[in-house]
Design a protein that fits this description.
The protein is α+β, with helices and mostly antiparallel strands. Helices cover about 20% and strands about 30% of the residues. Strands 4-3-2-1-5 form a five-stranded antiparallel β-sheet.
């Protein structure tokens, strides 16, 4: 794959599911990948995505989403919190 063909956003989530990944944490939205990420500023629209079928992402709660951008959720360390 060339550098110009890097997978991002919902395309990356679909590729991860196709590879067999399970329960992928994602920022989700029904309008766009960009909105899924921007919604993280004032809202908590995250879900663990388990499948993609019929043009929709499905989360562990059974809800469907049009867009799902994989994100990392990791605990802060004391150093990162400057304490």
């Amino acid at each position: 794959m060339s550098v110009n063909n890097k997978l991002t956003g919902s395309d990356l989530t679909r590729a991860m599911l196709n590879r067999g990944d399970k329960k992928i944490w994602c920022a989700v939205d029904d309008d766009s990948d960009a909105r899924a990420i921007s919604d993280q500023i004032e809202n908590d629209f995250t879900a663990r995505i388990v499948s993609f079928r019929d043009g929709k992402f499905y989360c562990t709660a059974g809800m469907t989403w049009s867009y799902a951008v994989p994100i990392k959720i990791v605990p802060l360390t004391q150093q990162e919190a400057n304490l």
